[in-house]
Give the backbone structure.
Amino acid sequence: MTEPRGRQPEAAARSSCGSASPEPTPSIAYLALGANLGDPVRAVQAAMQALDTLPSTHLRAVSSLYRTAPIESSGPDYVNAVVAVETTLSPLALLHAVQAIEKAAGRERPYRNAPRTLDIDVLCHGTTCQCTPELELPHPRMMERAFVLVPLAEIAPHLVPPDRLAAVQGQGIVRIAH
């Protein structure tokens, strides 16, 4: 991005003095979206739009929508998708931003794996590897779930080893929309 003409000398002076901080390098992050309460198709689509409005974040790829049965849970079937975003948000800032989107969609967490109006998981964020109580990257169970791997393979096949995709082929998943 270029500075307006009237600001170029000041910008040049800052950068030559080393006082200007460099812009953060964008990373590609992959997010899994799911919902099984209310209107799950609409919830997932609205979440995709909300992700594209996050600061310093742009939606780069969107998978088809898929219907899956709940895993380790109960309730109606889920609608799932995976998106790629380009972002300069840190992994933790991105997590907090997607949690705000979940909350705005009425997400409650009464117990583990409860049915939900919206769920957004950060699957990976660039090449970041971390394990904290708040966020583990890459997502620790992403390679075990068809509802993550099938849509992820659709938009980023280089991230899904064929043997992992084969290992989840018995989990019911049906493409419902693009």
